[in-house]
Amino acid sequence: MNHRFVFIGAGNLATRLSTRFQEKGFSIEQVYSRTEDSAKALADRLQTAYTTSPEDIISDADIYFVALKDSAFQEVLPKLDIQNKLLVHCSGSMPLSSLEAYSENIGVIYPLQTFSKKREVNFSEIPVFVEANSPENEKKLLQVAGAISEKATVLDSENRMYLHLSAVFACNFVNHFYTIAGELLKSKNISFDVLHPLILETSQKVQAMEPAFAQTGPAVRFDKNVIAKHLNVLREFPEFGNLYEIVSESIFKFHQNK
């Protein structure tokens, strides 16, 4: 495979995905970003060209990867002139059909992972989900995805949305809870590091059993005394108190129905 790629976007996902493709021998011909700092930073990393103007995106690449926030699709894609080349988005929440107005050849490559520009990941172990509007495009994207991951498979738009929603609960919401825990500890000058063994054991436990069976804590048994004590402490943090009550009630009701 000697495909030539353009990346439309220069954020966390675009950085990690383009870097991985380049490591596997694919040619990154150009990077687009709305801001010059972001575009130049990724282009310098890849030693390639960049632009901040959608109208200046080259038209002779083989695959165009759209790694933008969903709301930016309408700002950028109508300005493209890619002559029906393969246009691929990397979003978990956007359907394949969102690209239909911009090319006759469209697809999705969605890596299920949380990415940061400065943190390396083992891409070979990341599940990558592919969808396309024709068998030919699907085959091509499976080959491309298979070059960077050992876990490339086909998944349609509806199921990808459920997958993305599940990932938000499992990753984004959980990380927000880590942030809250950190704020509570910081208020008493306790290092967040003390939670590391607990976080590690929790993550390992749900890989060995169903998450519902791994649930512990005062909410699952509705220990009113402990919950009342926690809520009393959280009077200092009212924005967290409401969240504590909602989540505790959700945990209790879920396990009561099991």
UniProtKB/TrEMBL annotation:
| Ranges where the DUF2520 domain occurs | 126-250
Protein name as catalogued: NADP oxidoreductase coenzyme F420-dependent
Q: Sorted alphabetically, which Pfam families does this protein's record hold?
A: DUF2520 (PF10728), F420_oxidored (PF03807)
Q: What region holds the Pyrroline-5-carboxylate reductase catalytic N-terminal domain?
A: 5-90
For this protein, the record's InterPro entries field holds:
6-PGluconate_DH-like_C_sf, DUF2520, NAD(P)-bd_dom_sf, P5C_Rdtase_cat_N, TM1727-like_C_sf
